[in-house]
């Protein structure tokens, strides 16, 4: 491996800065009182409080899972502050009222907000440490009946929708971190596409953890009614801190008859330094329910950040002819660990799913693909195709594959393929023959390796992802 | 025995265990004593253990059968049809006990084949070096039980530079109802040796019993072993087996595992490529129907550079049967230039049949070629249609296609008479389950 690769891998984290805004922080620790405090601060209805308390009681009886192929320091759940909101909390009438410090932060991150938002055609619901401070394009979306707002607003303005769908895909006691999230979530995004509406633009949210020691527990709920369709983008960056921060989000998608939801993520939380100190623990539960006939749920993710990632965006294909897709690129470097994959649960007839997963490990990192394809006895004619490829850069890293395939219907066809490879000396030689240096060659090879996934991303994200990958791996091959 | 045994099942089994009287072989006594201590620290796995997630052995733990003591009566002609004419060496074990009167050794090469009791003194050094050293009985309760009740064992030693063309047949016959048999095999291949060994489990009648077997195979430098393991226990029996293989430099281990019988069968096959340039080929076929469950767990451990492994495992599942496959391939940090492929193909014949498969890769070296694949499917309607358009009745068409699916594995059996027996079994199987 040449020095070019070394440098590629060792690039400092570009988004590491702390915005100095006075935060409204709840005292550390988790108890029923903390939950009541969060609930009352957010002026929540009684049923939501009981939802939280039910989750909390479930959580108390659950144990932290240990089956993942990752190791990390023990998390002290009493050392986390469960509520942090930027101080100027008065209602904002326009973008000009937004704290200029905050705007500068987004500026540095390159969030397209003002004109840039218009140019990019993106409506951004910005999450800044749990509380949504500015929502753009809301009006335009409201004209066609789309609701796109922060979760707390939705609780106030559309409680009947939240009550109807919240926890229907990820039940409160689903797993340890989902239960924790259900108990203490502070904010997130809510999106509702009514019957027959095709969302005229890509919806986008940027998440950012700002206050040190405030774990972020957001909650996203997207509902697409009959015949509706939406493409939702989520981008994540976080500033650098030396203590590990916990991020335990829950995302629920519901697609009714003929609805189509496409959910794309670029995750670039702080991954810790070269020695594996600091970084985010990203323990996320994402699940989509393809409830109606001919519905479609598609997950695309580019995972480049976090010290430890533990995430399995899943599809429950309940409607007949429903379709589930999962496209993933996971890049790990230095001491990062990623255990990610998907679950495809086929229940309806003629359901189809596709899994394409690409893992790239460099440095001392470990990346695992863990997937489940389950064909239940009712899933007549179900079809699955899975492909998971790994690429190793350096001899200290690891790549692992744990695919579970469970078939209970003889009319199903399931295929799984996996391979592992490295960037060969002969490939680099071929490029250098053509006058392309090692660094560029590696970038091209990696982009080629990930092409199947990148072409699923919306245009702006594809560009961002390509850049992200090349600076993530700068200097790791040569 | 130290401490209390945690499981009722285990304590029932251990009731009949007596501290072996100090025999002339202190190492064997020590091994058994260590094993019984292991049993008391281990517990019987349940579906909550990842390795046993899909194989529920609760029904087995309700049947704490003791060892077979009295010998059963049957005439040698009852078992003659299990004999393989090609095999000049045949070791027969009845309910786990060596039966010299049924065994036969007319091998002209220098192969040493016999039971532990007769060979323990003459070959003590070699046997003590390998017996109990390859299987991980300290972490596997069934292997620990087998070692605890280790009284006799089939022992085959292929001496240095010896090539034997005639297959060696190890035949384990179950003849008694409600007993646990503990068959044990030790296969030692010295440098540059070559042999074909067939490990065969059969039942005289349709009996309920438990087979808990452990096989240890050691391949020295450049040894070539073709190991065929046929499990055709009775449909009501339980078969729990552990087969552990250690390979030295440039050795070649070719393995075939065929699971036909048993109500619940589980084979853990662990192959350790412990030195450079070792190769292994692992083929498997599970052919099950009715309420059967066949579980195959394989672990191929590439510990050193330039190793090669090839694996093809097929399952044909009819009735309400359930096939489980877990193929784990590990490439250790310094095992560069490893070349490994694994393929698992499953054919479901009925709607109630079930398959759980998990081909698992764990790779810690960068200069490797590793690929695995798994498929689950049914017979292709177009292929059936094609055959029907050529005048095959539907059932014959299905049988032919199912047979062809299994034949890919069976055709690799190098012993003609055994191949024929297996072909008949596959044909019979599809006829009784199709449609």
Task: Describe this entry's structure for a reader.
The complex is a heterodimer of chains A (478) and B (435). Helices cover 24% and strands 34% of the residues of chain A. Chain A contains 13 helices and 24 strands. A ten-stranded mixed sheet of chain A has the order 4-3-7-9-12-14-17-20-22-24. Chain A has a six-stranded parallel β-barrel with strand order 13-15-18-21-19-16. In chain A, strands 1-2 form a two-stranded antiparallel ribbon. In chain A, α2 runs antiparallel to α3 and α7 packs across α8. About 6% of the residues of chain A have low confidence. With 435 residues, chain B is of the alpha/beta class. Chain B has a domain of 273 residues. In chain B, strands 1, 2, 3, 6, 9, 11, 13, 15, 17, 19 and 21 form an eleven-stranded mixed sheet that branches. In chain B, strands 4, 5, 7, 8, 10, 12, 14, 16, 18 and 20 form a ten-stranded mixed sheet that branches. Chain B starts with 7 loop residues before the first helix and ends with a helix. The interface between A and B is large, with 35 and 36 residues.
| Greatest chain-chain contact | A-B, 35 and 36 residues
Indicate the low-confidence ranges of chain A by residue numbers.
Answer: 87-93, 113-122, 129-134, 207-214
The largest sheet of chain B, given as strand count, sense and whether it forms a barrel, is: 11 strands, mixed
Shape of chain B: globular
Shape, per Cα inertia axes of chain A: globular
- Quaternary structure of the protein: heterodimer
Which sequence of SSEs, written as H and E, runs from N to C of chain B? HHHEEEEHHHEEEEEEEEEEEEEEEEEHHH
- Per DSSP, the total helix count of chain B is 9
Strand content of chain B: 35-45%
Radius of gyration of chain A using CA atoms only: 22 Å
Secondary structure category of chain B:
alpha/beta
Q: What's the helical proportion of residues of chain B?
A: 10-25%
SS summary, helix count of chain A: 13
């Amino acid at each position: 491996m040449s020095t070019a690769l070394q440098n590629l891998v060792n690039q400092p984290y570009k988004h590491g800065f702390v915005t100095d805004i006075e935060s409204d922080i709840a005292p550390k620790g988790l108890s029923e009182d903390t939950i009541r405090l969060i609930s009352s601060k957010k002026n929540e209805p009684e049923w939501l409080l009981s939802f939280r308390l039910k989750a909390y009681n479930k959580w108390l009886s659950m144990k932290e899972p240990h089956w993942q192929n990752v190791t990390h320091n023990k998390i002290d759940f009493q050392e986390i502050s469960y509520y942090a909101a930027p101080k100027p909390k008065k209602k904002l009438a326009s973008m000009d009222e937004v704290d200029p410090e905050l705007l500068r932060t987004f500026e540095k991150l390159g969030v397209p907000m003002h004109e840039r938002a218009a140019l990019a055609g993106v409506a951004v619901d910005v999450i800044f440490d749990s509380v949504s401070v500015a929502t753009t394009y809301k009006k335009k979306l409201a004209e066609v009946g789309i609701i796109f707002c922060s979760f707390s607003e939705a609780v106030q303005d559309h409680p009947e929708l939240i009550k109807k769908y919240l926890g229907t895909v990820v039940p409160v006691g689903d797993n340890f971190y989902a239960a924790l999230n259900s108990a203490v979530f502070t904010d997130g995004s809510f999106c509702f596409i009514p019957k027959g509406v095709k969302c005229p633009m890509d919806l986008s949210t940027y998440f950012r953890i700002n206050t040190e020691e405030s774990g972020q527990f957001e909650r996203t709920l997207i509902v697409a009614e009959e015949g509706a369709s939406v493409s939702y983008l989520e981008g994540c960056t976080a500033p650098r801190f030396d203590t590990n921060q916990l991020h335990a989000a829950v995302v629920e998608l519901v697609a009714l008859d003929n609805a189509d939801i496409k959910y794309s993520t670029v995750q670039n939380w702080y991954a810790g330094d070269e020695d594996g100190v600091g970084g985010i623990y990203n323990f996320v539960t994402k699940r989509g329910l393809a409830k109606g006939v001919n519905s479609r749920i598609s997950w695309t993710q580019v995972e480049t950040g976090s010290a430890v990632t533990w995430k399995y965006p899943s599809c429950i294909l309940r409607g007949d002819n429903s379709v589930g897709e999962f496209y993933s690129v996971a890049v790990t470097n230095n001491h990062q660990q990623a255990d990610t994959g998907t679950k495809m649960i086929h229940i309806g007839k003629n359901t189809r799913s596709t899994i394409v997963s690409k893992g790239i490990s460099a440095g001392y990192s470990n990346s695992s693909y863990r997937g489940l394809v389950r064909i239940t006895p009712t899933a007549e004619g179900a079809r699955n195709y899975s492909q998971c490829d790994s690429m190793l850069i350096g001899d200290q890293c690891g790549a692992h594959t744990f695919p579970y395939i469970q078939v209970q219907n003889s009319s199903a066809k399931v295929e799984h393929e996996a391979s592992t490879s490295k960037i060969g000396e002969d490939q680099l030689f071929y490029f250098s023959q053509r006058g392309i240096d090692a660094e560029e060659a590696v970038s091209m090879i990696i982009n080629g390796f990930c092409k199947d996934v990148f072409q699923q991303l919306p245009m702006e994200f594809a560009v961002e992802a390509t850049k992200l990958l090349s600076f993530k791996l700068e200097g790791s091959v040569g | 025995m130290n401490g209390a045994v945690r499981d009722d099942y285990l304590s029932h089994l251990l009731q009949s265990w007596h501290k072996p009287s100090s025999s002339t072989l202190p190492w064997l006594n020590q091994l058994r004593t260590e094993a019984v201590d292991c049993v008391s620290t281990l517990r019987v796995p349940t579906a909550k253990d990842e390795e046993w997630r899909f194989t529920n052995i609760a029904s087995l733990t309700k049947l704490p059968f003791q060892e077979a003591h009295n010998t059963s009566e049957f005439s040698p002609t009852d078992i003659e049809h299990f004999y393989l004419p090609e095999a000049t060496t045949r070791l027969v074990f009845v309910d786990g006990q060596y039966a010299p009167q049924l065994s036969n050794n007319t091998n002209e090469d220098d192969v040493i084949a016999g039971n532990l009791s007769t060979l323990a003194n003459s070959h003590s050094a070699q046997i003590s070096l390998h017996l109990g050293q390859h299987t991980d009985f300290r972490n596997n309760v069934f292997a620990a039980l087998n070692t605890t009740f280790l009284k006799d064992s089939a022992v085959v030693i292929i001496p240095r530079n010896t090539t034997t063309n005639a297959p060696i047949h190890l035949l384990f016959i179950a003849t008694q109802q409600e007993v646990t048999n503990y068959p044990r095999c030790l296969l030692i291949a010295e440098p540059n040796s070559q042999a074909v060994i067939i490990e065969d489990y059969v039942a005289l009648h349709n009996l309920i019993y438990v087979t808990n077997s452990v096989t240890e195979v050691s391949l020295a430098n450049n040894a070539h072993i073709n190991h065929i393991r046929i499990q055709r226990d009775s449909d009501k029996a339980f078969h729990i087996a552990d087969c552990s293989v250690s390979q030295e430099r440039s050795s070649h281990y070719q393995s075939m595992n065929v699971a036909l019988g048993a109500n619940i069968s589980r084979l853990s096959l662990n192959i350790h490529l412990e030195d450079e340039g070792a190769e292994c080929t692992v083929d498997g076929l599970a052919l099950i129907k009715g309420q059967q469950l066949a579980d195959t767990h394989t672990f191929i451990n590439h510990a050193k550079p330039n190793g090669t492994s090839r694996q093809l495992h097929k399952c044909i599942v009819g009735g309400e049967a359930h096939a489980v496959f877990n193929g784990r391939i590990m490439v250790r940090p310094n095992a560069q230039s490893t070349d490994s492929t694994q393929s698992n193909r499953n054919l479901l014949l009925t709607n109630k049949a079930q398959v759980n498969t998990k081909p698992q890769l764990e790779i810690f070296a960068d200069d490797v070629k590793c690929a695995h694949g798994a498929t689950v499917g049914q017979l292709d309607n177009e292929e059936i249609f094609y055959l029907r358009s050529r005048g095959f009745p539907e059932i014959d068409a299905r049988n032919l296609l199912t047979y062809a699916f299994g034949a890919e594995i069976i055709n690799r059996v190098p012993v003609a008479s055994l191949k024929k027996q297996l072909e008949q079994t596959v044909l019979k199987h599809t006829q009784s389950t199709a449609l």
